[in-house]
Amino acid sequence: MAGIRIDTVFTDTTLPTGASLASQLLGSTGLSHWFQADPSYVTLGTGQNIASFTDRVATGQSFTQATSANQATLDANVFGTYAGADFTAANNDSYTLSGSQPTLTAPFSICVVFKTRATTAAQNLLGSFTSGSIRSILNRGSTAAQLQHQYGTSNMVFPIVDGVVQALIYGFDGAYLRGSIGGGVEIPKVAAAGAPGTGTMVMGTLTGGGQPFDGFISDVIMFNNCVLDNPTALANLRALVAGVYGVTP
Fold first, then answer.
1. Cα–Cα distance between 160 and 183 in angstroms, integer?
2. HSE toward the beta carbon, residue 169, CA cutoff 13 A
3. pTM of the predicted model, to two decimals?
4. Cβ–Cβ contacts within 10 Å for residue 42, how many?
5. Most C-beta atoms within 10 A of its C-beta, which of 142, 144, 201, 234?
6. Alpha-carbon gap, residue 220 to 111, rounded angstroms
7. How far apart are CA 113 and CA 157, in angstroms?
8. What is the DSSP letter of 101?
């Protein structure tokens, strides 16, 4: 499989013969989108500028940016031996999800593999933003050592470390914000309050612009369920991320 290489022998005998970590994930219940900063799954514009990320799930959708000045670059060897999308805040790099949008009022989960640069500026990695109280975004506020899933007026905090490859899962189970990070440790659930954003999902800034992200993104993997309550899909997701990037969301 282009873009995914594991240097050691994989000996999980529970997998069907010939199955790969990627094919196991692609067969998971509730998987709705998978975007990856890999040469096989992006379209390049000028030089190494990324014009779009192609959905590895067969939806025909993509994260797109037509303006070259606002395109992240595909950089080699960011995540170990794997490439990453380099988002530069000064350039306002951002991408808009084409086609139908995730239903954020129903259960959903999103896994992001990323690396942040040190900053104290407010930044938005991913999400749908309508207003300060109508939103579902993965945001970095003035506290440098954390990301936050801000859903309506509720908030779940994820501790992070700048300059280090990390992966987290955030989402909503219909009543609570749910999440995990750092070795698969689940964050205590938070009662959801208010409403999520109703606009287009954007990667790299808020919907409509502002608070640009500064760092690197490898994968954005979305489910239309609470993957933390789906043991098989969760195991497939964690096996892929841990096997490829050496971290467990």
1. 13
2. 31
3. 0.91
4. 24
5. 201
6. 6
7. 16
8. P
pLDDT of residue 234: 98
Q: What distance lies between CA 30 and its chain's CA centroid?
A: 16
**Is the CB of residue 232 less than 8 Å from the CB of residue 29?**
yes
Q: Which whole number is the average pLDDT over 204-233?
A: 97
Confidence of residue 101 (pLDDT cuts 50, 70, 90): very high
d(CA 138, CA 123): 9
| CA-closest candidate to residue 121, choices 72, 162, 157, 84 | 162
Residue 199 in tokens? 């606009």
pLDDT at position 142 is 74
* CA separation for the pair 138, 160 (Å, rounded): 12
| Residue 68, pLDDT above cutoff 70 | yes
Spatial neighbors of 147 by CB under 8 A, at least 6 apart, are 125, 138, 139, 140, 157, 158, 160, 168
Closest to 37 (Cα-Cα) out of 89, 1, 73: 73
Contact (Cβ atoms closer than 8 angstroms) between residue 249 and residue 184: yes
Compute the distance between CA of residue 85 and CA of residue 135 in angstroms, rounded to an integer. 24
